[in-house]
Amino acid sequence: MQLAEVSIRRPVFATVLSLLILLIGAVSYTRLAVREYPKIDEPVVTVSVRYAGASAEVIETQVTKPLEDSIAGIDAVDVLTSISRPEQAQISVRFRLEKDADTAAAEVRDRVSRVRNRLPQAIDEPVIAKVEADAFPVIWLAFSSDTRSRLEINDLVNRVVKARLQTVTGVADVRIFGERKYAMRVWLDADKLAAYKLTTQDVEDAIRRQNLELPAGRIESQQREFSVVSQTDLTTPAQFSDIVIKTVGGFSVRLRDVGRVEEGAADERSAVRLNGRPAISAGVIRQTTA
After folding, report:
1. Are 219 and 225 in contact (CB under 8 A)?
2. Please, where in the chain does CATH 3.30.2090.10 lie?
3. Residue of 75, 91, 93 lying closest to 83 (CA atoms)
4. C-alpha distances in angstroms, 32 versus 19, 26, 65, 201?
5. Beta strands in 69-125 (DSSP E)
6. What does the pLDDT look like over 214-248, one tens digit per residue?
7. Which helix (H) or strand (E) holds 153?
8. What is the rounded distance in angstroms from the CA atom of residue 246 to the CA atom of residue 211?
9. pTM score of the predicted model
10. Of residues 26, 24, 2, the one with CA closest to residue 14
């Protein structure tokens, strides 16, 4: 009643007070944080496995299924989804909100290690991350050059750009699209292989045997100690071309006799273009609470 009585007796004061409240409300409204969803750090752990050359059916039966069976036994699992693509398996484990994200990641890592010996030996080591595998980037960055190749651009993006973006507050992951990693590409001639009675497996075995980096130990004396470095790994196309595949009648059949070796990209199945020009793209994925 006092507020109403004061407002009646002093209408100017009541008007100014109403305008002040309205002004404060208008200013506060423009500064309110707007989010599509509540600020909740939902515990989601993703397991990614790459199996080069495997079809989607092989990925599902030999990789995805054993991992799913092992992970499903973890406590507080809410939703377990998986995607089996050619050469790639992705499993997303969504836990209930009361589950700590770090604890969930540790338990998933433990379950994956339990079934590692049941998975094919040729797979890459499973990658376990606290981010959704199919999380969509919120920012895209494209890099192209008139003087540098895509291999060089990719190397710069991996070493410089990606490392700096990952340290930015609110960034969960940085993924590279149209990636071009350095690799030695071997092109075999089927007719020459048949002439020497060789198979692609023979060539692969020879490369594995002769492209090794082995520890050479150390040399010790009473006053000094030296570490021995053996440069047994091959780094240039010429060195790969000199690999001996087989010896027939005292004649060494080398890799250059059945094919050619060149430096190129490890995978050229995907590409990114910027205004019609070849490019390398980086996608920035935000954290859940960012």
Report:
1. yes
2. 183-265
3. 91
4. 20, 10, 46, 64
5. 77-85, 88-95
6. 777 788 888 888 887 777 778 888 889 998 998 87
7. helix 150-156
8. 15
9. 0.64
10. 2
Q: Which fold has domain 36-134?
A: Alpha-Beta Plaits (3.30.70)
Using alpha carbons, list the distances in angstroms from residue 59 to 2, 62, 269.
76, 6, 19
CATH, domain 183-265, list 3.30.2090.10, 3.30.365.10, 3.90.1150.10, 1.20.970.10: 3.30.2090.10
Q: How many residues does the chain have?
A: 290
Residues near 110 by Cβ (< 8 Å), separated by ≥ 6? none
Provide the 8-state DSSP code for 223: S
CATH 3.30.70.1430 residue ranges for the chain = 36-134
Rounded Cα distance, 166 and 173, in Å: 6
